[in-house]
Amino acid sequence: MTGTRDRILSRIRASNGRAGPVSADVAASNAARLAAHRANLVPARARGDAAALAERFVAFATEVAATVDRVAGPDAVPPAVAAYLARHNLKAELAAAPDPALDAFPWERQKTLAIRRGKALADDAVALTASFAGIAETGSLMVHSGANTPNTLHFMAPTHIAVLRTKDIVGSYEEAWAALRRRLGDAFPPRTVTLITGPSRTSDIEKTSYVGMHGPHRLHIILVDDQTA
Q: How would you write the pLDDT of the chain (229 residues) with one tens digit per residue?
């Protein structure tokens, strides 16, 4: 495999007029560039104060068919989940990530909710997860896999409820990636990082848009307004 890779890379270098082995100087320069994680172009819509970014996130998320409930604090999250399930005539049963980020919410007060912690199963109708970050630039959620964040919860259930704190909304993708590197440290990169922009959809079949083909057909975001917390 290494020999095949080296041949492919050599052909790429040759096509760019860089035939021959990589010099020590070039190798060091490449390593420094990769380590610097320099930001790419950041559009104007990814800039602003915390309040502006939160409003922009909501606007773009709803534009791509996600729904958003803004709540005043952690205590309001369980009632908001129960109300959403009731509005859509869904059973008050959820598969939830064993994520410590969800432990901050008083689920025990919402007696109607039955919550099972763990990875998603084939018959789960609703999955509940926390979100690592919200990206105002496109109204996207960033989530990552891990022991406490099973990736199946983002894809298997028809309805995905994601909890996001306003303090975790950033303007650009570059900021989200930088925050993930800081959070995970030596564990970066995780096995998968997923960017979720609205419900799953595809137009591969005769250019007709279908929702829910490769994941949930509903994405509901509960945005916890805690910028000053």
A: 567 888 888 888 888 877 666 778 877 887 887 777 787 888 889 999 999 999 999 999 999 999 999 999 999 999 999 999 999 999 999 999 999 999 999 999 999 999 999 999 999 999 999 999 999 999 999 999 999 999 999 999 999 999 999 999 999 999 999 999 999 988 888 999 999 999 876 666 666 666 656 668 999 999 999 764 4
Pairing of strands 210-211, 93-96: unpaired
N residues, the chain: 229
Residues 53 and 7 in one domain: no
Closest by alpha carbon to 140, among 49, 222, 229, 64? Answer: 64
Residues 2 and 86 in one domain: no
Give yes or no: residues 123 and 176 share one domain: yes
User: What is the distance between the terminal CA atoms of the chain, rounded to a whole angstrom?
Assistant: 51
Query: Residue 31: enclosing H or E segment and its boundaries?
Result: helix 24-36
Residue 139 lies in a domain: yes
Q: Under a CB-based contact definition with an 8 Å cutoff, are residues 85 and 165 in contact?
A: no
Residue with tokens 């997860």: 129
**What residues contact 28, with CB distance under 8 A and at least 6 apart?**
none
pTM of the model: 0.84
The label of the residue with tokens 């250019």 reads 207
169 is in which domain, residue-wise? 45-224
| Residue 4 forms part of a structural domain | yes
Q: What is the CATH number of the domain that holds 182?
A: 3.40.50.10420
- Are 118 and 202 in the same domain? yes
